[in-house]
Amino acid sequence: MLSTSNSRTALRQLQRSRCLLKRLVHNSIVPEHCDVLVVGGGPAGLAFAAALGSSHRVQESLRVVLVEASDLSKVKQWSLPEGYSNRVSSITNASRGFLRDIGAWSHVEESRTRPVEEMQVWDGISDARVAFSASELLSSQPISELSRLTENLNLQRALLHRIACLPSIEIMDKVKVQSIVQDNQDGSDWPLVHLSDGRVIRTRLLVGADGPNSPVRSYAGIKSYGWAYDTHAIVGTLYHTPRGPYSPPNTTAYQRFLPTGPIAFLPLSETASSMVWSTKPSLAAALKAVESSVLVAMINAAFRLPEVSIRYLHSRILEAQESGSPLTLDELREELAFREQSHSIDSHSAFSSLMSSEEASGIPPEGADSLPPPITSIQPGTIASFPLRLSHAESYVGEGKGARTVLVGDAAHTIHPLAGQGLNLGLADAEALAECIDQAVAGGLDIGSHTALLSYPRNRYFENHKMLSAVDKLHKLYSTTAEPVVWARSVGLEVVNELDTVKTALMMSAGSHRTNVSQTGWELAARGVGSISQNLHSARMLGEGVAGMVGASVQQLFKQATTPRQ
Amino acid sequence: MRASTSSRHILRSAKNIRTLHTTVQRQTSLASSSSSSTVNPDEIAHFSRLSAQWWDERGEFGMLHKMNPVRTQFVREKLVEMEYEDGHEDLNEAKVLEGLKVLDVGCGGGLFSESLTRLGANTLGIDASASNIAIASLHASNDPALSFTSSSLPQRFGSSVSHKGKGKLTYEHTSVEDLLAREGPNSFDVVCSMEVVEHVDNPRAFLTSCAEILKPGGHLFLSTIARTPLAYFLTIFSAEQLLRFVTPGTHTWSKYINPSELTSFFHNLHSSSSLSSPSSGEIEVKGQTMDIEVG
Ligand SMILES: Cc1cc2nc3c(=O)[nH]c(=O)nc-3n(C[C@H](O)[C@H](O)[C@H](O)COP(=O)(O)OP(=O)(O)OC[C@H]3O[C@@H](n4cnc5c(N)ncnc54)[C@H](O)[C@@H]3O)c2cc1C
């Protein structure tokens, strides 16, 4: 048997050789240490850091550093500029509850946020429509809004102000993560993160909040599956006349499902709103290239004109673009006048895209409340577009060569914006991961270990997956490629019931409680949409009589979803 | 009943059990080469590999990693409970281990010792296997928050590293009997021995030493695997044969101890012994069988 002194000698020898190795292998850069290194100062990374720093346990025991490539002082100095930013998100009541709990919401400039009190969603082909308002939300306390539209900058600034009050969080901005390697000296598995300013940080846990192209995810060797939607989202800030004295205030969000993708109108103030228009990439490019006044008319038409004519206008826009002479406003107005006439749309009605601005500010015509107010102009410089894709990392926690890594927000998943959920999912991730780490600290665990992180994917992976697939199915349901669905929609079959599913999902996700209510809604929505597609498929074979069946199953679903949970 | 002064044989089986077979052979070569002054990077690589293996949460010792949070929670909860019973109402539950002198007997690769240290305990982890101590020391020296001290292995990151670690951690290759002989009785506030007692040849003597080294009013935590058919199924059959989680032979059936046997052992010790040490302390025995998650 080995004596103690023998093993001491062995250890001493180990140490000596280690020093030598270190000198040989590493050059003179001595790594700094931290317990949690967050890569990415987007909404998810900042919310996670703020949540983590708000825990007393964490404050006492962990050193947390956040690295962001861009200049965050600009975000911090953001102070009610005249124009609105084009990156606006709908923050659900549940997310707002979380932000309030971690002391961040009080730093949000509330005057720049806008409550959504009502939503109107309709089908571009059949015009079947659902409307729902906050008053319909099932809750023990009355809820006045479905969600709160907030500029991402406003939220990020609030989070930065909150973090400034938390001494245990250190932010390094204008610093890029250049490479990540594993410090596998002596069986260690800690990541060594090389920064653009030459510093090297050795971290117990590396958090990838670094967006869809996540370098942390690549380092961890975590695969991400998914597909591009062959769709780009055009965003922009729209100006319009205020709602008249006889109309409700501008607190209604509108979304029309066109076969090319949905177009959404999200209120920001009485005279400004944000747009997210998801459409084919070629069309998005063409729309971005036209004159601003032409785009204004196209947006108004996209909410109003029957689908066949929109399709025609889109082909005109594309042709003109390809021929090198983009469509002019006069040409477009001429087309619109002709189209509206053939659809018997009166040029003074709410459904005309040709009203003058004087008309727009007068007494609103009948039906005006079912449409967004007519757009008069676009805030310069706010039109931009993003490719949309569905992606989901195969796991959220790295192992082996990628040990001590974890993903949150868009680094873990990206989702179609039609339900305004991307950022909300990221915030829910941030909350769950911070909670998981807090518990691990309480239990004396190594917070970088797989065991310590286990509860995070358990809480989030399936929840996110349900939401991703529900939204994916909704997107597919309304896009032209799903054959049975197109057939069903072209004959107007029970689209209202499909919309009920959308409604259920949106309403549930707007819930005030930070429980799994929202997720339950999405789960039901996912199942509902799935069964609709299946039912429609059989419907085509069986012909008539199936509509009732589909309707009944969706109604059942809706009842289930809106019944308060036990 | 007095503690056995002869210690080696008691933990001999534990040594073999808690050590990978290759280690035992390697150990010898490491020991024999220790007189030479030449640096041998092979040895580092070897221990690094072993350490990585031991600490692989999905690997052979995965069950141990899974059980660790449960054990830690158990210890914390019991300590908190006792503190309240002793009338310490202003207790900060999160800091119940802070500043306590804790001995982890049979610390293995150091999993439990590290957790105790993070919770603020000044921990001494001992193991009868030199290579376990090397594994544990290497691992701890990689973690700047552990205030790891070793007479032979200086801290890898030196004192320049700012950390918020609270407790101090030390490892030593020794047995509880030798430690008792050296430090004397009444030395620790808390003594833990997790999944060790079922591996020792003479549990009675082993447990007596554990009890003696404890301060009056201290706490002794033991976990073992109950000698029940279910435990047999779970640990021997499922784990070893079926899932190959554990090197076959890691657990020896005849050394399993039933929690009730442990309790009665201490009750006997309590009433028959003139020792003051464990008598005022609480005896907590928890069979951990049910906490094992297989798969
Ligand atoms: C058109 C559109 C509309 C949307 N509308 C909504 C909505 O209404 N509601 C909603 O909830 N969500 C919406 N989303 C989604 C939402 O914007 C995203 O989910 C959200 O921004 C993701 O936040 P994040 O912090 O995870 O990632 P990001 O915002 O992408 O942040 C990642 C950060 O990491 C940094 N980074 C990356 N690599 C490095 C590196 N190597 N070194 C240092 N830093 C690095 C980047 O600089 C960036 O700041 C929309 C998305 C789109 C495209």
UniProtKB/TrEMBL annotation, chain A:
Its EC number is 1.14.15.45, 1.14.15.46. Pathway: Cofactor biosynthesis; ubiquinone biosynthesis. The keyword Kinase does not apply. Pfam families: FAD_binding_3. SUPFAM superfamilies: FAD/NAD(P)-binding domain. Keywords: FAD, Flavoprotein, Membrane, Mitochondrion, Mitochondrion inner membrane, Monooxygenase, Oxidoreductase, Ubiquinone biosynthesis. It catalyses: a 4-hydroxy-3-(all-trans-polyprenyl)benzoate + 2 reduced [2Fe-2S]-[ferredoxin] + O2 + 2 H(+) = a 3,4-dihydroxy-5-(all-trans-polyprenyl)benzoate + 2 oxidized [2Fe-2S]-[ferredoxin] + H2O; a 2-methoxy-6-(all-trans-polyprenyl)phenol + 2 reduced [2Fe-2S]-[ferredoxin] + O2 + 2 H(+) = a 2-methoxy-6-(all-trans-polyprenyl)benzene-1,4-diol + 2 oxidized [2Fe-2S]-[ferredoxin] + H2O. Belongs to the UbiH/COQ6 family. Component of a multi-subunit COQ enzyme complex, composed of at least COQ3, COQ4, COQ5, COQ6, COQ7 and COQ9. This is Ubiquinone biosynthesis monooxygenase COQ6, mitochondrial. It comes from Cerrena zonata. The gene is COQ6.
Automatic annotation (TrEMBL), chain B:
InterPro entries: SAM-dependent_MTases_sf (IPR029063), UbiG_MeTrfase (IPR010233). The keyword Chaperone does not apply. S-adenosyl-L-methionine binds at residues 71, 106, 127, 194. CDD domains: AdoMet_MTases. It is a peripheral membrane protein. One of its GO terms (molecular function) is metal ion binding. Its cofactor is Mg(2+). It is found in: Mitochondrion inner membrane. This is Ubiquinone biosynthesis O-methyltransferase, mitochondrial. It comes from Cerrena zonata.
